[in-house]
Known about the structure:
Blueprint: E1 5-10, H1 14-24, E2 30-36, H2 40-49, E3 53-55, H3 58-64, E4 69-72, H4 79-88, E5 92-95, H5 103-116, E6 120-122, H6 130-140, E7 147-155, H7 160-164, H8 179-195, E8 198-206, E9 218-225, E10 230-236, E11 246-251, E12 254-259, E13 262-268, H9 290-308, H10 316-335, E14 339-340, H11 341-347
Parallel strand pairs: 1-2, 1-4, 2-3, 4-5, 5-6, 7-10
Antiparallel strand pairs: 7-11, 8-9, 8-14, 9-10, 11-12, 12-13
Helix pairs in contact: 4-5, 5-10, 8-10
Amino acid sequence: MTEPLRIAIVGAGVIGAVHARLVSALAPGAELVAVVDLDESRGQALAAEYDVAYHRSAPEAYRAESVDLAAVCLPSAYHADAVVEALENGVHVIVEKPIDITLAAADRIRAAERQHGRVVSVISQRRFQPVASFIRRSIDEGALGRVTSGVVESAFFRPQAYYESGDWRGTAAIDGGGALMNQGIHALDLLLWMLGTPTSVSARTGRLAHDGIEVEDVAGAVIEFESGAIGLLLASTAAYPGLPVRLAVHGSAGTAVMENDALSFFASATVSAPAAESLVESDVPPGWSDVDVAHRRQYENVIDAIASGGSPAIGTDDGRLALQVVLAVYESARTGQPVDLRQAAKSGASR
């Protein structure tokens, strides 16, 4: 029998606790063996909850616990340093979104990934939801015809207390952005997955419902794609009481809409609508959401990639592309001008 993959959580905050719960459900393929956090009381509390070792230093944890995979759950601007540190210690990595907050940092990660030959995956778990996967297959199989447009909405709500819960939240230097960088990036990733290579971005952002933050709580963008398709994006943390992510993909032969993690509309000139039960998660543990199960499936995909020596379904190129579009939204909003992503790629821009 193959030994379970040994996983350490790096960062014992709210997201680290989510990852610890997910990893604990991965047996027998993986097991949680360590929690790493500079905050000793917080780190020890999470480690005690799962009866694993606590370490203040990640390299110390990697050596002492023979760690195979690190889950980096730190504030966004610390991602690259933590990922590169893990790779230099021979450890594979799952890193929370965004990959980091600058393209230069993302490129550091990609260079270290190539140098050390380890798997790195960026969390984008919504791709593993059955409905999202079905819509992508429908596109690939031609059921929607030529894709002409896509609309994605991440209309969430975060109270003022959310931004006051950590001194890094809502900061440009550490959080890197607001409603789009930290919440809407999941919806943006779905839009990019469905529509392909983006070529230009025109956007506006606002800080309308929260005080004392440096970042946006509303962002809207028009994204043009290499195929000619047009995408519309809304990301907000100022939409009380908050709604589920909504994705609509329109084509010359069909339309598919995902809402509340379900297929709310499907029409195709060439194929019939799927049976509703075929798009329902069949293995949802009590208290888990469909997104939780999708998150677990991303872990399982990474574990399979490590075992087979292959590549994960969502890699550093995907994480960099999503970050590039987020930064283009911010630049367009700042300048009032469209951002040509093709020109940026030619010039090697790496904010």
